[in-house]
Amino acid sequence: MLYCLSGHPTLPCNVLKFKSTTIMLDCGLDMTSTLNFLPLPLVQSPRLSNLPGWSLKDGNAFLDKELKECSGHVFVDSVPEFCLPETELIDLSTVDVILISNYHCMMALPYITEHTGFTGTVYATEPTVQIGRLLMEELVNFIERVPKAQSASLWKNKDIQRLLPSPLKDAVEVSTWRRCYTMQEVNSALSKIQLVGYSQKIELFGAVQVTPLSSGYALGSSNWIIQSHYEKVSYVSGSSLLTTHPQPMDQASLKNSDVLILTGLTQIPTANPDSMVGEFCSNLALTVRNGGNVLVPCYPSGVIYDLLECLYQYIDSAGLSSIPFYFISPVANSSLEFSQIFAEWLCHNKQTKVYLPEPPFPHAELIQTNKLKHYPSIHGDFSNDFRQPCVVFTGHPSLRFGDVVHFMELWGKSSLNTVIFTEPDFSYLEALAPYQPLAMKCIYCPIDTRLNFIQVSKLLKEVQPLHVVCPEQYTQPPPAQSHRMDLMVDCQPPAMSYRRAEVLALPFKRRYEKIEIMPELADSLVPMEIKPGISLATVSAVLHTKDNKHVLQKRKRASDDIPDCKVLKPLLSGSIPVDQFVQTLEKHGFSDIKVEDTAKGHIVLLQEAETLIQIEEDSTHIICDDDEVLRVRLRDLVLKFLQKF
Amino acid sequence: MPEIRVTPLGAGQDVGRSCILVSIAGKNVMLDCGMHMGFSDDRRFPDFSYITRSGRLTDFLDCVIISHFHLDHCGALPYFSEMVGYDGPIYMTQPTQAICPILLEDYRKIAVDKKGEANFFTSQMIKDCMKKVVAVHLHQTVQVDDELEIKAYYAGHVLGAAMFQIKVGSESVVYTGDYNMTPDRHLGAAWIDKCRPSLLITESTYATTIRDSKRCRERDFLKKVHETVERGGKVLIPVFALGRAQELCILLETFWERMDLKAPIYFSTGLTEKANHYYKLFIPWTNQKIRKTFVQRNMFEFKHIKAFDRAFADSPGPMVVFATPGMLHAGQSLQIFRKWAGNEKNMVIMPGYCVQGTVGHKILSGQRKLEMEGRQVLEVKMQVEYMSFSAHADAKGIMQLVGQAEPENVLLVHGEAKKMEFLKQKIEQEFRVNCYMPANGETVTLPTSPSIPVGISLGLLKREMAQGLLPDAKKPRLLHGTLIMKDSNFRLVSSEQALKELGLAEHQLRFTCRVHLHDTRKEQEMAMRVYNHLKSVLKDHCVQHLPDGSVTVESILVQAAAHSEDPGTKVLLVSWTYQDEELGSYLTSLLKKGLPQAS
């Protein structure tokens, strides 16, 4: 069974019940909800702090504390909230393990591990945990350093929400929206994680084995194999076939899956990441040459490493070597440092650098030569060092909190400046809404290296799963491009689709289970060659089942008074040639044997013993007196001609 | 009978040139390929002719595994692969892969350039050899081929040191390499899960030692260094470039800072800077404290420790020098030692184990007059101190690891025979497992009895489970089926399915026994009595009285008939199939005893 707790295709959260084990696959946190909130300015902003309250058409202003009008839109004026995965569909305290595929897909972890009675283990790779921690730390820091007493809840009332303008009216699952967790909750959640390496086989309760595989998307990102001896589920989440910095995707190990769960495809299927990077560089250079500043809203890890590497190769040739690059995040330093120590998780080229020994990423050199500077925030050292024109990398990509809010307010009014959107998680128009009207140039260069539909088709042809399960969004073209039939998952049989709060029964056709034959029993088996290359042995043994493992042991004679009717004798097969049978009888001392032919076979008479043996093609019937010794003798002679099964 | 065979080519009742051959389920694996520092003749490398006299190395070996970068574990590798000739895979961890070629090059330079040895491996051979290396990550299951898999566990000891599990089917061997069960200043403690290997091959360097607390040893070390420096003496600490050196540097660095000492500390080779770089890039392999704080402070950037120039050795005044190699058998440490040995104010601290034949071993065993090359005699007046900082498990640690892994057998290598003997007894007593300690070239053979995994058809398994008399799934039950063996595919199915799959018809074997009883009553009455009797005796069985007058017990049929000749005798016809043999036979003998008189 598959319980689908998230409707967001790139921030999945599914629970798989597999062989009496309950496994949560990722716990992504949908942060697009924050787009409905006002930005949290780091520095007192006269504009944002004096917005008019919003009132209903009839002039009723009871919501004016919660909702503010800004740039022609209505926003919630409160601490931003995130959309949690479904917590009611299944009792989350019964979840045994959580498998994390990459650091973007674990942002809801503290909500799950700290508030649902969860007592299990979380499995993730070391880079996933370390960078995931940085992302959470940054998020908590961004929100906590701008304390906002107000928490809005009136507007969430269903009857009131109906009356609100779009997009608030259409916001979904608002009842599940929650404020950000605390650092304490983050630490507690992360302490429940057990580190794993690629291709490590992890046994769960003796019944299931899970294995993370490199997915090629981010440092330490993984797909997961969940299998018993005869069933295999592949969980593909956030994979990439492009050569960026992470280790390449392991595709071969996904073969022979009964079910392949497919999530985390590219969110921008029509954009080519390479040309986006090119556009990013040229727009950046153009702005700076004209004396403007460039703002790049971004996460503190991931694509930023690749952008810095591109710039490293690009700035000298573009004549930008005197332009300062600033990376501002509470975790900027940690992110840059951590990226250098995960050699074994990197692509081959970068791995070989550590043998020299050199740092794998060239941003080390950018820092050494003072071209790239990093600061925990705009306060402190940064204000002294700040020179314009410059390039600033900072978060959060939603433009609702973090240092980016300050730069939007600072630079938005000049057409010399440019904001370049590279993260694909948020609609850039919605992100910009509270800052309109803007004089600043806006460039949209989303870089999403995850699989596109062409790559998916190729992958599915390659690994040939029996069934594909994916979010419903992937089974039809995007609403804005409904004619693009190529922008959907195409496979045979058609993919089973799921949506939030649905439960799917997964189609398994299991016919076998593993059992161990103990050596003592194995030694006692007598194999018989039935056909060339095929041998048979009848097994009559004791079955032990413990910890979901089955073991067959040699049987010790039962000494019960009444024999157990469950003790089955083998089936027999073959036929009895009458002449040879009679000869055998004679050899064993039977005399006075008479053979009569019948319609279907023969009757062998042992007159002295008043015994009659009917022999037909597929049956033998021994009719005798209650002389057990005689009967057993005859039985054994008959059995000599038959094969046991 | 399947078996596991182990033959040490080196490190059998000895420390040095570790090299152990293991045969498991038809696969041959070589564990480590080290050199012996106590020899400079043929004996410095393992005797590979043990394998080559019957064929090529590549044909015989399925893979080679290197546990860590110490030369006594990897020093013979280029000789083995390039000069004797091996083209198969060589597995090691990434730090080992990074550092190993540097140490090999160092070793080569000393042997060829300093000692002028001919017919030694070349720099190119080291490079070619390293091309055959495949990096293994911790806990990753590496499939060497369809059947053979290996898995690395953290071993402490030095950066990148690993223990390896070698597994074929349900049989497995764990080789510890060198390991350390207590975390130190830069590395964590070795760890393994309860993997229950058929055999655990463990090092036993400190088989009889129980080391005192590490803190005491550190204090002792700092006191000795401090005292010597205070009285204007020079301290020589022979180390290997990577490993212990970094730990002692961290120790001295913090001490110097705390005590505000001014005497210079030098590190001898140009490797320092590079070595520390490796440590920085391989932070995930260090201990938890360093991993946690590395962003704020890189523990491997030293303020007080500077690069050494050979001219410094003659400068007056106190100083501390870390010099390679660690056993005073060659190179810079030996040169400095010669210069400083004559002065009783000076001190040499040996922080690790020294193999026999090295200068280090000689002075540690009390020798004060050393015969050097060219018949020179060197008189040692400086103080000689031994401090065990070697990151090997002590006796307690070894026992702890055996307890963790729960092996079926233990085999000791990398230690001295006498000490092994002691540990062997201890292990056999405490864990009730066999413990072996073969000498080099000696083979230990362990019979194994692996269980055979087969696929059981779900129908059969479920049927057997449903038929269990008690619902308790844990109770052992009887199972009957047919094992179909086709190539290497083993399946256990119900007999009916086996017949069907093979296209064979069932042959029914039926018995009918005549039981004669003296009874004058009618057949129907007789049948009724039979029914009542069987019903009362066979409480657990399904006994039925059918309308046609016959009685069934499960699928066994009992009919009463008149005797054709004797009206005072009735005949009970008991009929059953071969599958009901036991019950049928039992019923016949039961009925033969007669029926109880009606009460």
UniProtKB/TrEMBL annotation, chain A:
Stated name of the protein: Integrator complex subunit 9
Organism: Bos mutus (wild yak)
Protein family: Belongs to the metallo-beta-lactamase superfamily. RNA-metabolizing metallo-beta-lactamase-like family. INTS9 subfamily.
Record carries keyword Plastid: no
Keyword list, A-Z: Cytoplasm, Nucleus
Assembly notes: Component of the Integrator complex, composed of core subunits INTS1, INTS2, INTS3, INTS4, INTS5, INTS6, INTS7, INTS8, INTS9/RC74, INTS10, INTS11/CPSF3L, INTS12, INTS13, INTS14 and INTS15. The core complex associates with protein phosphatase 2A subunits PPP2CA and PPP2R1A, to form the Integrator-PP2A (INTAC) complex. INTS9 is part of the RNA endonuclease subcomplex, composed of INTS4, INTS9, INTS11 and inositol hexakisphosphate (InsP6). Interacts with WDR73; interaction is required for the assembly of the RNA endonuclease subcomplex in the cytoplasm.
GO biological process: negative regulation of transmembrane receptor protein serine/threonine kinase signaling pathway; regulation of cellular response to growth factor stimulus; RNA polymerase II transcription initiation surveillance; snRNA 3'-end processing
Nucleus found in the keyword field: yes
Cellular localization per UniProt: Cytoplasm; Nucleus
TrEMBL record, chain B:
Cofactor: Zn(2+)
Alphabetical list of PANTHER family matching this protein: CLEAVAGE AND POLYADENYLATION SPECIFICITY FACTOR FAMILY MEMBER (PTHR11203), INTEGRATOR COMPLEX SUBUNIT 11 (PTHR11203:SF37)
Principal localisation: cytoplasm
SMART domains in UniProt: Beta-Casp, Lactamase_B
GO cellular component: cytoplasm; integrator complex
Listed name of the protein: Integrator complex subunit 11
Family listed: Belongs to the metallo-beta-lactamase superfamily. RNA-metabolizing metallo-beta-lactamase-like family. INTS11 subfamily.
Residue ranges constituting the Metallo-beta-lactamase domain according to the UniProt record: 16-210
Keywords: Cytoplasm, Hydrolase, Metal-binding, Nucleus, Zinc
Domain Beta-Casp: 245-363
Assembly notes: Component of the Integrator complex, composed of core subunits INTS1, INTS2, INTS3, INTS4, INTS5, INTS6, INTS7, INTS8, INTS9/RC74, INTS10, INTS11/CPSF3L, INTS12, INTS13, INTS14 and INTS15. The core complex associates with protein phosphatase 2A subunits PPP2CA and PPP2R1A, to form the Integrator-PP2A (INTAC) complex. INTS11 is part of the RNA endonuclease subcomplex, composed of INTS4, INTS9, INTS11 and inositol hexakisphosphate (InsP6). Interacts with WDR73; interaction is required for the assembly of the RNA endonuclease subcomplex in the cytoplasm.
GO MF entry, a single one: metal ion binding
Native species: Bos mutus (wild yak)
Keyword Nucleus assigned: yes
UniProt subcellular location: Cytoplasm; Nucleus
BP GO annotations: RNA polymerase II transcription initiation surveillance; snRNA processing
